């Protein structure tokens, strides 16, 4: 292996060598010490759609990601020099020869610029082989005996000792005598079952070399795939590497889910030169479509934009052929001059199909909720009355409104009535069934009386109707206890689901909990199988992918008849491509199935609501200290720390349980968290090793969904059982299927806790385990510290970004606008201030707030609205006659608010398109009423 070599063209050092084993170097930190273990780049495993879930359950390979920490290791080159290197290394044993690009960072420290290439050492020393055996728990005495035999037995010296021949040599060692035979079997068992990394690497040398760069998070999981699957992957990498750039091809041709490398990854591997011309053109165009959709929220791009697009490092040879390649391989869909990623096209098309299916069900068996019991419930609020009527009558209802307008109040009242009616229907059905059974029993007894006494006895011995009924009854009762019932309340985040459940008095779930439950269901039964109504709160946060998956599952595997979407169309849309709530709201408005609640029912938040309306009209809010809407000036960006300190000292955020800082930039959140941590908990957020430091008194939150181990008192649960459960959990982390332990808790992304206790327990085996007691003001849970930190993505939470805090509320919100940027628009400010229920502080520099409020959101190009308009067109009422008896022609559907505000990407339409043309829109003054062009707000 070569030592460090300089590349003058990029000032990079290619460092080659191997990672020094743990403990070999004196006075150096452990290789496991890292300064980036808190990196949150790796979130939850990507959520699969329903078809992929079914395929995964049927055995299709799923490339599960593995979290890679930014670690400090020591690399020894061939000259024996040791270099400190900070980077991400999926394999760290000394028998892996690596090569990685680095930049020097002063002294003898290198920072990696990417991921390493690996090769298994072909000429390992005996000491390295013995170290390998030690790692995989071969008994030290057996290792010593094997080592001695290698030196004295000629038969063991016939083949070179390396990883390829190791198993053969161990087998030969077993033939020496009876003692070595038993030892040999044990060694082979450990090598084959626990030392899979090395044996798999021998099968796939090309994947071992390029896999860490192509699919860094999924490399390790794929390395441990079944032998035949790994060989397929290695063959593709060696002979047709371009296929790895197109996930749909890997899925349809080779049955791998989640295998798609980026264009940049191929560049780092220098594999683009192996691509055929059409495939090379295609991956550049595909990468542009993906990045544009991800960055701007589109589900399609205009074909004209693709024909104009140029790439600095590549000249497209044949655009038409490349685009056709993408279509032929089910990667994109071309429709009327629009090019969609097929998966997004399918998500939106499936939502349209699901709505159509609900309409067909409604024709066959309409579910009408009796609204008589709702008389007088909503007082004088006509919007709430109409919304309740919509839910009772229609299969689909979309309800929009600001916080405090009563969306969840309407839902709770309507579905409490529906729940009571369902119970009454079930009771009536049970009585009818019991009556039929009694009639059957009476007829049976009459027949028995006509039979002989002997036949009667025989009949009595073979079947006991009462016992049979009791069994059915017990079975039915068991199923009902497992089932969540007919009404399913959901939200996109754990915090939003918790608030929804608290306000309605019914159990609520996150959307991903329902999807995960389906993926892990066993047998034919499913606890959501009896669902008849689906309610989704905070729908502006929901992506088309997530909703399409959930909607498809419930339509196929439950009794779904009603869909109710709640949210605020003026809030930020999902960070993922699509514009779900806005498209649903505006496409259903012409047929009267969507409604906006306009009345604020929180007296203390009147100015907050009024200012939110001003912001949505791109006007500056009105500040009034007496009415609890404050402006806090920051003259310079570097003054944020002192301003936050002053706010805390003046008692503006005196109670961190009822107040929350919100910022647009994560950088500002880090500054605020540092100040708050010193103020509330008297320590820094990072320790001396630059790791997040959590202590009693801290305000924390989970940033990922995860099952975390709960503390169980050893005096209550036997220790062996606990150890077994821990083993199962560890097996789960290694990718093995394991049964969920009953001693864990599901923590959801966005849940906020306060650390009230920090303890360490030592087991009988002398192993210490740290536990944190977390309090969310309604419950206390004692969880494993390392699990909640790594799997749950534990972070300090005095300050949250607006995207992560959307869907939550606090009595007091302090919003830090930050430096003006084109990425922050009026929707960010609107969403932030509406998180406050009683009081709002806007921390801003001169001009920053004005710039943000006047910035338009990027219009999101989506298919869903047109799909639904075409589907619902037959239900649309005829247009009103205009002056002179002619019909006003409506060509589209948007909100009646000012078109120049850019609504449509979250609040309404922006008229700019990719090809420079202007689109005309029609305004809607209220649900069900369509205005002709010229009747709406002027453009």
From TrEMBL:
Which GO MF terms are attached to this record?
ATP binding; DNA helicase activity
Q: Where is the UvrD-like helicase C-terminal domain?
A: 796-843
Q: Show the SUPFAM superfamilies listed in the entry.
A: P-loop containing nucleoside triphosphate hydrolases
**Keyword annotations of the record:** ATP-binding, Nucleotide-binding
> What Gene3D superfamilies does the database record attribute to this sequence?
2.30.30.940, P-loop containing nucleotide triphosphate hydrolases
Q: Which domain of life is it from?
A: Eukaryota
Bias (Basic and acidic residues): 428-448, 720-736
Spell out the Acidic residues composition-biased ranges: 31-44
Domain named DNA helicase B winged helix: residues: 233-341
Record region (Disordered): 24-45, 428-475, 713-743, 901-939
Q: What is this protein called?
A: HELB protein
Instruction: Please report the organism this UniProt entry assigns to the protein.
Output: Branchiostoma lanceolatum
Q: Which gene is the coding source of this polypeptide chain? A: HELB
